[in-house]
Amino acid sequence: MKIKACLFDLDGVIVDTAKYHFLAWKKLADELGISFSEENNELLKGVSRMQSLEIILNLGKKTLTDDEKLRFADKKNQVYLDQIYRMKADELLPGAKEFIEEIKQSGIKVALGSASKNAPLILQQLEIEDMFDAIVDGNEVTEAKPDPEVFLKGASALQVEPQNCVVFEDAIAGVEAAKNAGMVCIGIGDPATLSQADHVIPGFEGFRLSNLINLFEDDNELKLKS
């Protein structure tokens, strides 16, 4: 395999906004009288806003009308945005910016593939919006992960075939989306949780392009999973 492009999820890969999502969903759940824990929040990783609301409603065995769902989802997003507008560049996860800069300098194309509709704002707050050759976010896709739409659109925007793309993901649904797209997937986080990824690393701190290339050269390290 020749690596021609790297596609990155946003939350949990480049920056950790999970804490802000949790605070916003927790406030909403409290208003609905639903118990919502950090463990429950893990169920929302890589999931769209409306699907996340459905999960929370199922946890509390609650039902809402479509209009009420839209109102609560918008309310959650406003609470979340209040936090995001206070984000600074130093909230980038360790090593992420350095790794992206290195692969770009090597000629590998870079895209963002995120379910978040707030991705452009977050990139702006982190001062890295100019680092990506293409940005595909929740405003441009109709199907949520594990559907491969977001990554296939990213590859198309980069004019790179899926089999030449490497995806970096921290969520189970995201890993499945990458594999469904026919791409290699490097998981960020726990190997047990992300067992379907082709390889898993704890993060980008100390991880360089040479480490990525070595994964493909050592068959004992990286067995591509169908």
CATH architecture call of the largest domain: 3-Layer(aba) Sandwich
Overall mean pLDDT: 93
Shape: globular
Structural class: alpha/beta
CATH topology of the largest domain: Rossmann fold
Total helical elements: 9
Low-confidence stretches: 219-224
**Regarding CATH, which class of the largest domain?**
Alpha Beta
Please identify which CATH superfamily of the largest domain we are dealing with. HAD superfamily/HAD-like
Strand composition percent:
5-15%
The helix fraction, in percent, is 40-55%
User: How are the strands of the largest sheet arranged?
Assistant: 3-2-1-4-5-6
N-end to C-end Cα span: 15 Å
Compile the SSE list and pairings.
Elements: E1 5-8, H1 18-32, H2 38-41, H3 49-59, H4 66-84, H5 96-105, E2 109-113, H6 119-126, E3 134-136, H7 149-158, E4 165-169, H8 172-180, E5 184-188, E6 199-201, H9 209-217
Parallel strand pairs: 1-2, 1-4, 2-3, 4-5, 5-6
Helix pairs in contact: 1-4
Describe the structure.
It is a single chain. The protein is α/β, with parallel strands linked by helices. The protein has two domains: 5-16 and 90-217, HAD superfamily/HAD-like (Rossmann fold); 18-84, DNA polymerase, domain 1. Helices cover 42% and strands 11% of the residues. It is built from nine helices and six strands, in the order E-H-H-H-H-H-E-H-E-H-E-H-E-E-H. It has helices at residues 18-32, 38-41, 49-59, 66-84, 96-105, 119-126, 149-158, 172-180, 209-217, and strands at 5-8, 109-113, 134-136, 165-169, 184-188, 199-201. A six-stranded parallel sheet has the order 3-2-1-4-5-6. It is globular and about 50 Å long. The model is unreliable at 219-224 (pLDDT under 50).
